[in-house]
Amino acid sequence: MKIVDIRATTVTVPLEAPLRHSNGAHWGRFVRTIVEVEADNGLIGLGELGGGGESAEAAIRGLREYLVGHDPFALEALRFAIANPTASLYNNRTQLLAAVEFACLDLIGQHLDVPAYDLLGGKLRDRVPFASYLFFRLASASGDGEVRTPEQLVAHARELRDAHGFTVHKLKGGVFPPGYELECYRALASAWPEDRFRYDPNGSMSVAEARRFGQAIRDLPNEYFEDPTWGLNGMRQLRDLGIPLATNTVVVNFEQLATNVRDPAVDVILLDTTFWGGIRPCVKAAAVCETFQLGVAVHSSGELGIQLATMLHLGAVLPNLTYAADAHYHHLRDDVIVGGKMPYVDGTIAVPDGPGLGVRLDRERVARYAELYRELGGYPYDRDPARPGWYPLIPNDRWADPS
């Protein structure tokens, strides 16, 4: 089996409402680039990466001469052909490699008629648990969906909990002043004292502010405190809080993971199939974490169904997955895969059992959302539509006004 072509299509899929975060917002939609890798046997493997739009499409097209004639089974050779660590200082191809790796695993699975999880060591669980992943939200174009007050946050969490069965709740913070978000987080925890909670301000707080916040939530059933401040050394200064610290920002490669093992700063590593360059690097990283008794979870970077499938196959094979995964997925109004959005049951999603990644493109949906992208274009992830001209500092003091 040899690769004969690679194609990229950028789509934009609507969200229920714009999602705010410490660096800006998702402006009411996700922009994702769908990658198709075609083999000489007629099979097509699927990949996905976020943002970029036209630039992501051009970058994927630029890989064609690297890939045509390559054997999809030769994944280690692929890693160095596309993302040699020294060359990547200049071409920054980690996320491109991830999308191609997804597609190659999809091709191999289809060729052998086995699910991707069988290529990764075998399935240990049939369903992967997820957290509710709550955001402060701006109102949608129709005027609904706002999440700004503690009451709105609890009401939104209740809707998701009732609909999807979540018992773990993660609040994405870093939008409003820490004292106000503390009030929101405590309101959330008091609504369901039997559930578990996570708070993630995306590294926006100073060490001192993060310490004050951490001390104020120590009595709650926290699973972990995610990226309260920026950097390994900043996180290391908070290890005496008595709350596990987690990250998806300061341990995102093996060198940083080694540093964290030698001089511990973080207790839980959130593995992202895109940020780490594919599913296989995440499996390798999870094995390191197992050796040194670090916790692992599966991170979300704004997925459609293809990347969600990679997260599910990863979650299926990790023996040390003791935390529910993150997903933005329930904020989407639709998906580009056959059958539409995958359903949650009791806070979990079933691992696809079909060959490869186990998902296929709905061509009508792809065409519709590609046209929507051509109509709307991209959006600046690091800007907030409610605050023209705003940008954050690290540590931040330019908070949104909750009133």
From TrEMBL:
Pfam families in the cross-refs: MR_MLE_C, MR_MLE_N
Enzyme Commission (EC) number: 4.2.1.40
Organism domain of life: Bacteria
The protein's enzyme class: lyase
Catalytic reaction(s) noted: D-glucarate = 5-dehydro-4-deoxy-D-glucarate + H2O
Record-annotated Mandelate racemase/muconate lactonizing enzyme C-terminal domain positions: 150-244
Pathway membership, UniProt: Carbohydrate acid metabolism; D-glucarate degradation; 2,5-dioxopentanoate from D-glucarate: step 1/2
PANTHER family: D-GALACTONATE DEHYDRATASE-RELATED, GLUCARATE DEHYDRATASE
Identification of the protein by name: glucarate dehydratase
